[in-house]
Design goal:
The protein is α+β, with helices and mostly antiparallel strands and about 100 residues long. Helices cover about 45% and strands about 15% of the residues.
Length: about 100
């Protein structure tokens, strides 16, 4: 077996294990999003202790899947595309930088 083949095998095992783990988290996240949507409604802003602002929004169709509800947040890193702009978060009353 070549080093490249060995690396492929190791990475594929890691990928498949991680993929299954993420499927479980994705299901739990979808359930949590739905719970928040039922609890507070769609479009209500909230924040975590790091200052990231979130809201539950109606899902947008994608080629992979269409979800009824999604979460959006302000970006954590400058190169990320945010679901909530800093202006939107400020307009909603949050102190964000």
């Amino acid at each position: 077996m070549t080093p490249a083949q060995q690396k492929l095998i190791e990475l594929s095992k890691k990928y498949e294990t991680t993929k299954e783990f993420l499927k479980g988290i994705s299901k739990e996240l979808d359930e949590a999003i739905l719970e928040v949507a039922k609890e507070t409604g769609v479009g209500v802003f909230f924040t975590d202790h790091d200052g990231t602002v979130f809201r539950v929004a109606k899902g947008k169709g994608t080629y992979v899947a269409y979800k009824d509800y999604i979460y959006e947040r302000t970006r954590r890193h400058p190169k990320e595309k945010p679901g909530i702009t800093l202006k939107e978060a400020r307009d909603a009353g949050f102190d964000v930088k």
